């Protein structure tokens, strides 16, 4: 395999590049909106409370300068306060968060337009300063409430346009009006530039996280495939010895720690084909392989419980682990399996106990003295050894008292 054939699981630079106009592919764009909104929700309530305090302070200053101003300004001020409270209420429920950006824009327009109105309606030498509410509104949507860049840009242009018209038709000195407009333009363009840079960084961050997440998922799936390949016996399709040991240890760990999904009991059946060496010698190794497949298909078809399994322990030795069956049921299972394998009728002229392939089985159970999987296996092995010694083609059990009994 050449290096170009190898799949590189790490994201490449082209995976996370972002166009100048910031747009992401459609499905990602949708996810980004949620991500973007979530980044604002954390800071917005505090920002809105501060804005409400500023509003109250502004009213106090207006009163100190000239109490007559309040007579004109209280309605616009009340409207702005209501918009702030409305936006704060929207934060309370996640289902309403979708309205956060429209509400922020509405609030900004409220601030800018009430400023324009007050700047024109109030006759006072300082009333042109009300027009400063427009740059405040632009700062609010760009720096504080962080409305998406294009919405912020178009809204700012409308607000600046309205400011230009209002300063033009108001009775204020042209120099003051022009200074205000230029100041607003300078502050607005800097805020918008900052918002563009911020959103670009946020999108880049979102994209990198997305690409990493995808690659992590791919690696995870590949690991699952590799893990299952590493624990399956290629010839019979049973779990291999490594897989068996890890599953058995896991089950025993659950049993000992008494977790809610722990098995009540574990029964272990260890079986071995009788005179398999002679089978190979008589029929050849490929036929021996075929025999192993046929024999193992019997317990594989009998196991039903999700946590039960059949494993190839060694050459012609197999393990069946049954969870939650009583010891008696496990013995019945073993005898039925022995019988079904005999009933397969695979000719075995080299066997000294039968004309067909037979097995010997040793059975042990976790109700006895075994404290872990290895000890349970040792007990079943001892029973199997005795079954062989007693003439083969039979089932032997290791009793809870540690005695081997023939069935
Ligand atoms: N065809 C084939 N044979 C295998 C495989 N793995 C192990 N064997 C053979 O299985 C035989 C096991 O022989 P023994 O351990 O002597 O056991 P046995 O002949 O079955 O005798 P008893 O267990 O005492 O009845 C050996 O000849 C191994 O070569 C395999 O994957 N395929």
Automatic annotation (TrEMBL):
Gene3D superfamilies to which the protein is assigned, alphabetical: 3.30.70.270
EC top class, as a word: transferase
Residue ranges of domain GGDEF in the record: 264-400
Cofactor: Mg(2+)
Membrane-traversing stretches: 43-65, 71-91, 98-120, 126-145, 150-170, 176-198
Any one GO CC term of the record: plasma membrane
Catalyzed chemical reaction(s): 2 GTP = 3',3'-c-di-GMP + 2 diphosphate
Keyword Methyltransferase part of the UniProt annotation: no
Any one GO biological process: negative regulation of bacterial-type flagellum-dependent cell motility
PROSITE patterns: GGDEF
InterPro entries per UniProt: Diguanylate_Cyclase, GGDEF_dom, Nucleotide_cyclase, Rev_trsase/Diguanyl_cyclase
Keyword field: Membrane, Transmembrane, Transmembrane helix
Gene Ontology molecular functions: diguanylate cyclase activity
The keyword Membrane belongs to this UniProt entry's keyword annotation: yes
EC number(s) per entry: 2.7.7.65
NCBIfam families: GGDEF
Protein name per UniProt: diguanylate cyclase
Protein species of origin: Alcanivorax hongdengensis A-11-3
């Amino acid at each position: 395999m050449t290096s170009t054939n190898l799949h590189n699981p790490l994201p490449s630079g082209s995976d996370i590049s972002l166009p100048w106009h910031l747009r992401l592919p459609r499905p990602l764009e949708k996810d980004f909106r949620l991500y973007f909104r979530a980044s604002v929700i954390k800071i917005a309530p505090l920002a809105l409370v501060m804005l409400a305090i500023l509003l109250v302070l502004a009213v106090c200053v207006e009163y100190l300068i000239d109490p007559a101003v309040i007579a004109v300004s209280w309605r616009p001020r009340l409207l702005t306060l209501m918009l702030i409270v409305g936006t704060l209420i929207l934060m309370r429920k996640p289902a309403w968060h979708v309205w956060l950006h429209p509400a922020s824009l509405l609030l900004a327009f409220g601030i800018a337009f009430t400023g324009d109105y007050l700047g024109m309606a109030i006759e006072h030498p300082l009333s042109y300063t009300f027009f400063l509410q427009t740059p405040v509104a632009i700062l609010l949507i760009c720096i504080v409430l962080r409305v998406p860049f294009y919405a912020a840009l178009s809204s700012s242009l409308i607000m600046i346009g309205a400011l230009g018209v209002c300063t033009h038709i108001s009775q204020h000195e042209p120099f003051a009006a022009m200074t205000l407009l230029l100041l607003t333009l300078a502050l607005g363009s800097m805020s918008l530039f900052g918002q563009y840079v911020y959103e670009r960084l946020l999108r880049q961050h979102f994209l990198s996280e997305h690409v990493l997440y995808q690659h992590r998922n791919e690696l995870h799936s590949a690991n699952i495939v590799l893990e299952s390949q590493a624990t399956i016996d290629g010839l019979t399709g049973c779990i291999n010895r490594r897989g068996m040991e890890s599953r058995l240890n896991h089950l025993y760990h659950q049993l000992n720690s008494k977790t809610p999904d722990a098995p009540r009991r574990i029964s272990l059946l260890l079986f071995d084909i009788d005179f398999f060496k002679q089978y190979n010698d008589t029929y050849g190794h490929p036929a021996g392989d075929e025999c192993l497949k046929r024999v193992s298909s019997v317990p594989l078809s009998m196991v039903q419980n999700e946590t039960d399994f059949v494993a190839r322990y060694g050459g012609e030795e197999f393990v069946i682990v049954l969870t939650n069956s009583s010891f008696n049921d496990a013995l019945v299972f073993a005898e039925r399996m022995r019988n079904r394998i005999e009933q397969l009728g695979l000719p075995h002229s080299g066997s000294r106990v039968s004309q067909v392939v037979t097995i010997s089985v040793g059975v042990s159970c976790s109700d006895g003295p075994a404290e872990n999987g290895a000890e349970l296996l040792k007990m079943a092995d001892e029973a199997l050894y005795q079954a062989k010694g007693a003439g083969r083609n039979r089932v032997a059990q290791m009793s809870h008292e540690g005695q081997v009994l023939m069935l």
